[in-house]
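hi! just following up on the protien thing from before. the input was this:
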Amino acid sequence: MLQAISSQSGESLPENFIRFDSAPAKLVDGSVVRVRYLCSRPCQLAVEVAVSILGKTDLVVFRRKWINSTPRVYRIHQVLLRLPPSILYQHDFFNRNVLEAKNATVRAWLNHLKDGGEPGTSRGSILRIHKVLWVTALLERPNKPPTECPSWSAQLMWQMTRNRIHQCPDESDIIDMLKFPLASTGEHFGVVRRFQPFIDGALESARLHAVTQPSVTLSVWIYLLKWCHKKYCGIIHHVDRNILYSSVLMQLTDTGNVVIQARVTTGEDEAFRASVVLPLWKWVRLDCYIRDSKVWKLSIFRNSIHYDDTDGYFGIGGNKYLSGIHGYFGPIKYYRFGTDEVKCLLSNHKSKIVSTLQELDRAHQECQEIKALTKAFLQELSLPLGSVGIKHLRTVLFDEAVGTMFPVAQIKITSKSTDLLQVSSCFGNHKASLLLASIYFSNLGHSVNQQQGHVYSLIGATGDNRFALMHAGYKHSQGTDGFLKDLDMAYSYYSNAGQCTLEHIYLSNPDDLSSLTHETSDVFQYLKLRAERGDLKSQKRLGTMLYWGQKGVSKDTASAVKWFERSAMQMRDPSAMYDYAILLLKGQGVKRNYTRGFRLLNKAAEMGSINALNGLGWYHGIVLNDHKNAVKYFEQAALNGSGDAVFNLGVYHLNGKNPQNPLKNETAAFWQFLSASRFGHVGASVEASWYLSTGSLEGVSQDAERAVIMLKKVCEQNGHLGFMIREALQAYLKGSRQEALVNYILAAETGLGLAQSNAAHLCEELNLSYDCQWRYHNYSILGYDPHPSALLKMGDHYYYSSSTQENSLSLVGQAVSMYGRAALAGSPQGIYNLVVLAQRGHVLPLSVLSLFNVTRDDDVDIVVEKLLRRCHSNS
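and the predicted 3d structure came back as:
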């Protein structure tokens, strides 16, 4: 993207504008970038160079910022690129730290200055442009010119050690591919594992020799709840760099057989079906011994097997193209040089994980007995199983269990409560599974039992319950409650969740609560009155609230469409015209009318609606099959900052339907998806995170952490999660604190910071256990963007605990850190708390002081003055 514009209708000049007048094609030190721009008011601009290296996709190696105080005047700014030696020169005596850049991008951004003259950031910039640069290969770089004359002994030592590869002392050819049980729902997701070449030269030489004469062993524990619901389901798969299945591919069939496929040295794929039929509801270990052309005791291929485990990635379960099994994976061991015998029996193993597997089996066996008993009981009454309504039964059991938990104001978990929840879980209510896991983890009216917590977390996840999947993803991303910290496992769970809109209402914030509206409230009735009198803004707001069911208002699509139509047909607001046009084109809540919808879109686009430009692209591409004009409209919308349009351009690169570039280009698609994800686009985030999780695209390093962060944000927009939050809020407003607490706890266990803060607030309001309150306050600060109120609460907790515990200085330090993070997030209370600590003689660390332009040399009075000034400007 070389140019970006934001404008308003009726003006001759754009409001804001930025483009490259000139930019280099190659990453060269001393190159000049010329940026032409226009700001509607005082603004900050920047030019950056970012590179992708192994393990990190977006590393900034150059940045220059400047401020323009003269609005509405076109200006040109020239920036000289000064790049670090790490990406300019080879690895030598004078240049020890080298970055092997896969690709590079020069980008510029524009942002308005905040009130008070405080500069903005690139993350919140209103316009961004970029250009991809060609990068010189590492071996083609020049040597860094010497800056001094080293001694003869130093040069000799360098020559002797420069090519030495330090051997990792614990490098092993035996790898635990899975150490913690994995729930598999039978959907298209699984855990990705990548293997690197050996560091040890002898081991790597042996591995390379074995590519055409392999000797490897895979040992997989699985527990099947069902056989494959399709023809084939994935157990273990290997995808090479060309996105083709390689050796080895292990699949389950719809009849319970195992199929093993391998790539042979001739380049062809060969497969066979094992005669064994895997049982249901029983832990089974599959051992696959590969020796040259043989899969031991099973089959012999016609040619030797080609096996390179560093080419591409391995997957456990499903992937984008293959469904996984429906059940669980236990420990998986991979012997890169094979083994004569795998020794791992569940019966004589006493590890915690094996105990969890045994408890998981026991829970399912008990469930089978409960179902059999229920069926026999109904037959005795001459009633078919379906006539009772299992969905109704499991809901009644759940409600009864929750009722027994609150006999009085205090929460009390009895054996009756857990028994009812277990039966409800058995009949498929995995809201009960998640509540059981929460009870066992949280010390909430019941002693902590992590093993049982793991069992019901896994049962809920394998039931494809969105909350349970998010719960498992969150636990693995943080490594809490006994879950193994494993970002690849976290990604596998998050990748199976859906999306929709979620309202953020904090119970501890009176302003949030006062913003709520009800159909019977005076605010809603006044809004309706203004809408009926023709007020366009009221009509739009009313339509949005009724269409989505927001602000405490019940969803009413028919009434919403009526208000959308009335606001659109005033022909004064392009966004209102766009909203109604989309409803007409898609036939949502109104009879489909392409002609009328297209006219409204055209008119809205003429009036400056960027969304309408994107809508015209959709109409030409999907309805008219006119991809040339579709791309034209998408490009116009993308240049004006439409995340939807950027995503749509990525789709065109992915499917090869762009008339200008008719070939499929996954790399171009990825960068478009990544750009669109920065606008908060859900589909783009899902697509970009898949490439980041696998690292399968050339030039894009595997970055599981970034993939997890992106998908967690997507999952927290889940419509079902939003409904649960709405139920909790409605219960709270009606005075049913206990019902609200249960729903907030269920949502809190998925990792949603809003729910964690509200659960902690209710624990405090209901005078429940101390552990309940601080568990969720503590969880709420572990997220990637915690709410300031949670940081303040944890700061208070650490500070007041310091007076009663021996490690008081450490606790005060943690309190300062919490207050500092709250202050950085814009909390005046956080800044004020730092002032109080400074006045009481506590030394604030440099990491906190630097946030407020304070140095170690400033005395206490100056520190206090600077902090109070910032506090006043933020209040």
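DSSP finds 31 helices and 21 strands in the chain.
The two ends are 38 Å apart (CA to CA).
cheers
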